[in-house]
Amino acid sequence: MTLEDPVEYRIDRITQIETHAKIGLTFAAGLRSILRQDPNVILVGEIRDVETAEIAIQAAITGHRVFSTLHTNDAVTAVHRLITMRIEPVLIAAALGGVMAQRLVRRLCESCKKEHAPNKAEKEILERNGKAGGRFFEPVGCKACFNTGYSGRLAVHEWLDTGRDIKELILNRASVDDLRAAAKSTGMKSLQKDGVEKASHGLTSLMEVMRVTHEEAGS
Questions:
Q1: CB 42, CB 67: distance < 8 Å
Q2: Phi, psi of 74 (to 5 degrees)
């Protein structure tokens, strides 16, 4: 069952509910109704308030698989967003299986992209993400891509696996920096690192990766 605002894609054999705040059908109200039917999997389009967060967390720790979205800069800050919504860390640690952050970058046009030598700023990004070599490309522009140099988009991802070490840090209300450091030590690939890897395969440009992940420059 899903709760969405709005329902964007119709899916066969899935009960999809569109929220309507004017008649009281909020995410929280809809989620309460859904739980009475005891579904195995619940999709909550977005956690926007404390009430929805509390119900979603309770559903997750009572045997339901719950998927939802939060608007945050990256996967790690999603944990702190829940804490600032006054959700007890012990409940977050018990309920949270993982967090996937994603952003869209423009895909280089295969018809006109050309090889590119990284500039100073781009070299700093490569060094920060442990990428010493590789072939990189830049946009040019042609009729096929309407002179933009790009055609289509692809996602860059960051997966935070809430294993034992991360759960302990959540219980201790660790800072975002401590959580991020622990996650990277256990193998988490940042949005920027994933973007750099995709750029090294010629899928997008380093310029585009820097544009989309600019806030990571100090992390």
A1: yes
A2: -155, -175
